[in-house]
Amino acid sequence: MTIQLKTQVAIVGAGPSGLLLGQLLHRAGIDNVVVERQSADYVAARIRAGVLEQVTVDLLREAGVDQRMHREGLPHDGFDLLFKGQRHRIDLHALTQRRVMVYGQTEVTRDLMQARQAAGLPSHYEVEDVRIDGLQGSIAEVTGQHQGQALRIQADFVAGCDGYHGVSRSCIPADVLRTYEKVYPFGWLGMLADVPPVSDELIYANTERGFALCSMRSRTRSRYYVQVPSSERVENWSDEAFWDELARRLDPQAASHLTRGPALEKSVAPLRSFVAEPMRWGRLFLAGDAAHIVPPTGAKGLNLAAADVGYLWQALSAYYQSGQSQALDAYAERCLRRVWRAERFSWWFTSLMHQLPAEGEFGQKIQEAELDYLVHSEAASKALAENYVGLPL
Ligand code: FAS
Ligand code: PHB
Q1: What pLDDT, on a 0 to 100 scale, did the predictor assign at position 1?
Q2: What whole-number distance in Å separates Cα of residue 14 and Cα of residue 123?
Q3: pTM of whole model > 0.70?
Q4: Is the CB of 104 within 6 Å of ligand 1?
Q5: Which domains are delineated in the chain?
Q6: Nearest ligand for residue 212 CA
Q7: What pLDDT does 215 receive?
Q8: Spatial CB neighbours of 213, under 8 Å, sequence gap ≥ 6
Q9: Which residues carry out catalysis?
């Protein structure tokens, strides 16, 4: 038996991109169906980003899911750069009159999932063999298999929100698709633990032993990262080994405030920069990690995904409310201008903060000179700050 559905927008992927788009479209009166490969529990348990730009906060408000974020999230006015044993604060608010919100992607996803469920919107989890067809025709079609039943969804448009390893990008013909990629020779070993953060704000550290980042999810839950070789395996790291290495990469004051505890989660994430163009092919619109990946140093991944979704929501709303397709036709170009600015910033900040042995001693001295300039020049600090808080939509 086949489950046959018709909708206006079929959304492939129930990560932050797909769920945020689904919620925004619903509030604009646009029918949509979500199709997700994994189970709802699997999606809800993912641990990823932690810092939201104001643009993302505003979109979550538009989606009607910002209440818990404002109750439990932590507004941050700045962060510290640590290098040569000294910490220097980048005062985001003084430099840009804006701030960021520290609130985990896990919580954003859960808020969006609960809102979708409360609205009774059609979501199909654990769908295998998802295929997308008809993108150059009069109606698009998304098919798949769910617990032995065939699923067939006809839609005006398909939103490819299925992440880097999804299926939607491959629907763009190879002679049309252009990809740009840089793979870094290192990754991030991350640890989540129910211990109080080492500092009130984030600390980005450039040390001889490698990069480290002290972040958080709340005042009682910390998120830490240390740079490791890209070949590193999480099995090689006991909790104690992780805490010892993190302490070695902090200044004495921070190290003395470091509270240790058992890992709730520990994993190695590879770092890459990646962009796929175009982000539109006929009735298909790519959004989020399906179209681009940034190294997490600049906290841009989730925020770029939200910005894509914001543009797509505006364009689809204009189409359905007034029959205009100009915004849909401009979607890819509009997204990619912001994407490439974020790619540049994420690459720059990653190259500045990580140990890059291949760059040699000259490269090390250039990093030191750039960091010294950065914290002693208001113009340089302002450039860092305006990219970190996020460019306007
Ligand atoms: P996602 O990958 O989150 O979601 C895609 C969804 O599509 C998934 O649920 C997947 O199961 C589903 N899917 C895949 N193939 C499918 C198919 N064929 N059919 C149906 N569904 C399919 N960003 C930051 O800003 N800061 C960070 O610290 C940070 N850390 C990260 C750590 C890791 C390990 C990873 C992988 C990413 C990290 N990111 C970080 C980036 C991350 O937050 C992404 O930018 C964000 O998840 C993007 O959301 P989506 O575009 O929804 O993609
Ligand atoms: C996180 O809290 O997971 C986080 C914060 C800032 C980053 C990257 C990750 O730049």
Answers
A1: 82
A2: 8
A3: yes
A4: no
A5: 2-76+100-181+272-349 (3.50.50.60), 183-270+355-389 (3.30.9.10)
A6: 2
A7: 98
A8: 188, 202, 203, 204, 205, 224, 225, 297
A9: 76, 204, 296, 300, 388
